[in-house]
């Protein structure tokens, strides 16, 4: 076995372990979620994960390796943190608990996206086109799951901010609707010059 192929096999076995751990953890995440849409995203991904495990088994078989997994310590740690998040969430209100749960879930998704991206690149370099296609399919599902979690976050975050504003808690960037007087970081020089030119023109008209 070439060194590159060995790395690919190690990556696939690592991902297989990660997915097996995730499929066992997702029911707990579904139960812990309060928001209906969040529950739906987790349930959808649970079904997807079962299919991803099948693809990894198929990928290993395609390159002549047994569908065995080796313990993915990275995923083990992330899921342990997720369990702590679920436990800590029992002392939080529903919005805060769900937002913390989403943060933990997205850490898992980002780990998987990195892993599948690396494995797909290796498969392509080794000419394992069928394996690369299978990995691309799963990578797309992981990216989609991450996107859906972000979309669920938006209204929950707005509700949480509204509640804090209503209780008199000042947000780090000021009161709702308050804008900064200084230019936004990253604003282009051309944009800043245009704004400055417009202001100067208005000043001249006012003086005249």
What CATH architecture would you give? Up-down Bundle
* Structure summary, number of beta strands: 0
Strand content: under 5%
Main beta sheet, described? none
The pLDDT mean sits at 85
Q: How many helices?
A: 6
Secondary-structure element sequence?
Answer: HHHHHH
Q: For this entry, what is the oligomeric state of its chains?
A: single chain
Model regions low in confidence, pLDDT < 50 over at least 5 residues: 170-208
Question: What is the H level of CATH, i.e. the homologous superfamily?
Answer: Ferritin, core subunit, four-helix bundle
Number of domains: 1
Name the features.
208 residues; Ferritin; elongated; 0% strand; 6 helices
What does it look like?
With 208 residues, the protein is mainly α. The chain has a single domain (3-166), classed as Ferritin, core subunit, four-helix bundle (Ferritin). It has helices at 3-32, 36-62, 73-89, 94-125, 129-166, 189-207. Helix 1 packs antiparallel against helix 2. The model is unreliable at 170-208 (pLDDT under 50).
């Amino acid at each position: 076995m070439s060194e590159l192929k060995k790395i690919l096999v190690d990556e696939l076995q690592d991902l297989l372990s990660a997915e097996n751990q995730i499929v066992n953890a997702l029911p707990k995440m579904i139960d812990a979620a309060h928001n209906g849409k969040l529950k739906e995203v987790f349930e959808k991904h649970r079904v997807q994960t079962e299919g991803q495990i099948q693809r990894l088994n198929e990928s290993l078989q395609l390159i002549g390796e047994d569908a065995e997994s080796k313990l993915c310590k990275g995923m083990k740690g992330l899921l342990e943190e997720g369990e702590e998040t679920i436990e800590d969430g029992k002392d939080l209100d529903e919005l805060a608990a769900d937002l913390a749960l989403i943060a933990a879930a997205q850490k898992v998704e980002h780990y998987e996206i990195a892993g599948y991206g690396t494995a797909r690149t290796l498969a392509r370099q080794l000419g394992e086109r069928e394996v690369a296609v299978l990995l691309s399919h799963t990578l797309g599902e992981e990216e989609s799951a991450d996107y859906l979690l972000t979309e669920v976050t938006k209204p929950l975050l707005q509700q949480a901010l509204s509640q804090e504003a209503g209780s008199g808690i000042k947000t780090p960037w000021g009161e709702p609707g308050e804008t900064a007087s200084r230019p936004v970081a990253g604003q282009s020089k051309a944009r800043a010059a245009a704004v400055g030119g417009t202001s100067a023109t208005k000043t001249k008209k006012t003086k005249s």
